Amino acid sequence: MGGVVVDEGPGGVKAPDGGWGWAVLSGCFVITGFSYAFPKAVSVFFKELIREFGVGYSDTAWISSILLAMLYGTGPLCSVLVNRYGCRPVMMVGGLFASLGMILSSFSTSIIHIYLSTGVITGLGLALNFQPSLIMLNRYFSEKRPLANGLAAAGSPVALCCLSPLGQLLQYQYGWRGGFLILGGLLLNCCACAALMRPLVAPPKSTQLELEDVEKEGKELEVEKTPSKRKPLLDFSVFKDRGFLIYTIAASIMVLGLFVPPVFVVSYAKELGNEDTKSALLLTILGFIDIFARPTCGIIAGLKWVRPRVVYLFSFAMIFNGCTDLVGSQAKDYPSLVVFCVFFGISYGMVGALQFEVLMAIVGTEKFPSAIGLVLLMEAIAVLVGPPGAGRLLDATKNYMYVFLLAGIEVVLAAVVLATCNFLFIRKKPAEPAAELENGTVSAEMELLNKPVAAEEEEEEEVEKGEKEVKEMKEEVKEMKEKEENEKEEVKEMKEKEEEKEMEEAVEKAKEDEEDSEKKKEEEKEEEIRPESVMGVSEEVERFLKEPEEQNGAVLSSSETRL
Fold it and tell me: Residue 233 falls within a domain, yes or no?
């Protein structure tokens, strides 16, 4: 299988739908290939392991089962680690674990050692790469998500086409121990893919900025804000969603039989007397068909009239796969197995391209990181039971027909459960998906298709209430800003008036000072500057004025004497 998921980024960020996303897609392509092709490619070494350790088919089948169980069962652990440390560091550590497990298994002395090294350690490493890579892919793709889903899922068949013949070649040249050692070195490429997972930085939300502005400016209006709750590392509220419960049950049933044919088809061909190389070619044929089936199905799922009904397309894919198993159980020669692999590759590719697309449509992007971890955990139980149970059935009956019949029945049953329950218990609301998907959100139509009526109404009420509160808050902030601007203008006008008054007073005072200084200067000038000529004239005038008086006095005195 394979697929992509969307994780809600911190604060939300619009998916670029391209750019560096294509590099992220290439890394996801490689990691998806390793994650899902390894459990099948390892089956090439089963014959040698049976001879080496003297065990049965059911014992060797546990290797693939443990690999898949770790890939599925550690889903919640991956969700927690990604939410805590981020995608890139988790993937780097996962790449080292995946390589270390295969290297250690090359030194195994018992089948138990291979269970622990290849199954547990390598399985854990692949799990730590798989889920974070899909989360990163969906952060980069939104509108083109179905296409990205199909392209990323195509990594599984491409790797299967390469790893199966490579494993057969390594077994002939170096034995199973040398083959495991070389495959361990090959898994170090997961670290290189992890380096491509450059995180997107989310811009701050506008409402948060407005609230921060209100707090910083010290407004008199008190805006009541509920304290932001820390996002849980694992959200169990998804189990309240009926659509999620139906999907989880159906997917768990499906996994019981989905991986059985790829694990046993090579041994089936060898049992019919075909050469090892010729038998391994069947996985190559299956993978080659699967390469084209996944992107094609992704394109079809992205069509406007198909995307809202993707749940039923997924159900059809499972029915197709199950019927292929039922018909393939009657194969008696190599050409029949080739035809089986062709049709199985088509149906298997459809299931792989749609599995996580459907889960995304059911739970939405916000809860998907937790939902995918919990779904994988539930499926891990089925993975642990499926291939080993089929191997035990094979040991008891010595007939591959019953193995393929059981697998087909399980997958068909899963399809019936998903389609029937979705039709009966989930309100059908076909609506065309939005032309533009932003911030990693799935189209609202697809979410509504799989949401209960009550949940839809509550969600709509909450959205309307939130929008109303934000609108009121924006209006309050706007009024407060206008009030502040008015106050600033009044203060500015008052300051201008005071400055003008001070200027006038200063000018008047300067004029008065200037007049006083001029008066003082004139007085000083009058006192200090008196010319001698003026003084002489004044003395002569005084003398002239005094002479007539003296003459008159003399005349009067003479007249008096005469008398």
Answer: no
